[in-house]
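Sequence only, no structure available. Ideas?
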Amino acid sequence: MKIIKIFLFLTVLASFGACKLDLANPNAATEADVLTTKDGLLALAKGVEHRFATSTLGVSILTPAVSAREVAATTTFSSLEELEDGGKQLSGENERVSRLFARTMRTKGMAETLLDNVDNVSMLPGTTSALKAHASLYRAMCIGILAYNWEQVPLKNSKNNDAVFVDRITALREAIGQMESALSGIQVTPPSSEFNKTLSDINLENTLKMYIARFALIVGDNDKAIAMADGVDMSATPNYYFFDSQNQNPVFSTVFEGTPQYAPRLDFGLPASLAPDAGDMRVGFYLGGVDKLGNNYHVDSLVAPFFNYAAAGIPVVYPSEANLIKAEAYANKDDFVNAELYLNLVRNKDAASDVLGIGAGLGDTFTANNDKQALLNEIYKNRRIELYLTGLGLEDSRRLGRPAPPVIDTINYNTERNRNFYPYPADERLNNSNTPADPTI
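Reply:
I predicted one. Tokens follow.
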């Protein structure tokens, strides 16, 4: 989506869901202007989109990528060293973990403010349905980020610092229900032209289906995951978060600019037993084939077109995730035939037939010979490669049964992941008495 100039009052919208607006400029828009007018709500919706792209997206990709061993830290910043050490070395005081939580909560609060007010303003039915779908999608995206990384999630932001946490599966189920309602709304009442003039950058129907399918897979609803993934149009024109010289691609700015903070681990950080197949064209799509020593292990260079220049667009969804969702859901149902069918569609896809230009092009047929763990391992490997740097690595590692880090004080940089879940930020614990106890690891 093109990042556009936002009205002056959008600079303060980040505080929605946390505190009242307090503008010093008497000529600037007031909270009432934003929340009680159609133009204000449309601008708020654009602000949600802008904040997610420029503030939340980057940390949601890179922070768990370190913990899931997808990338390595390349500086000696203490916050990055702690993140890379993981285990008991990582506490709620860590700036990277706190930033991930705070930025995600801020965007989530803005989306919730939009949802809380959209029915109070008279608008065209197609504007109302589309605003609800837009806000529901971004709220769900934020709930997903929290659920991928923490055991419990604040379901609804609170201005009083007393948000109630629920277990992550409950949060994901609630998000699924809200997205299903939003999807039904735009199917019955499609987005209006006035909505599309302001916010036509995301295919709402396709993206909602993908997120419902993803969340359904995580919560164990395999049939819903398959049904929703079946509905994803994999040939639809792809949507991107676009950036510019002032709002740079957040992966580019930390991997290439100034003092680089991150670098891809060799072979996507996969263990030798799950190394990419010889001839897998996705390796060259993402990585530069440079084997060099990082702080603690060998790293590669990043060449993927989604990340390698300041204005590079990051895909909103990767259509091939739909086939990987179906492969895993069928494997969970012990349907090896269909699981291998959809897995091999991903393995054999060539770049020319993929709307994002990603293709392994392996041209062979994988079979697990009824070995379920072997099948899940191959699905994990292909998710790790196909969906590289999407923020899903830590969630995938846990869900697909990869080895957990040992509960010991010794630092081991060769573990497949260095945490199961993150500790809760110290600031949240200080201000919100509902903050749960930290996980052991």
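The radius of gyration is 21 Å.
Hope that gets you unstuck.
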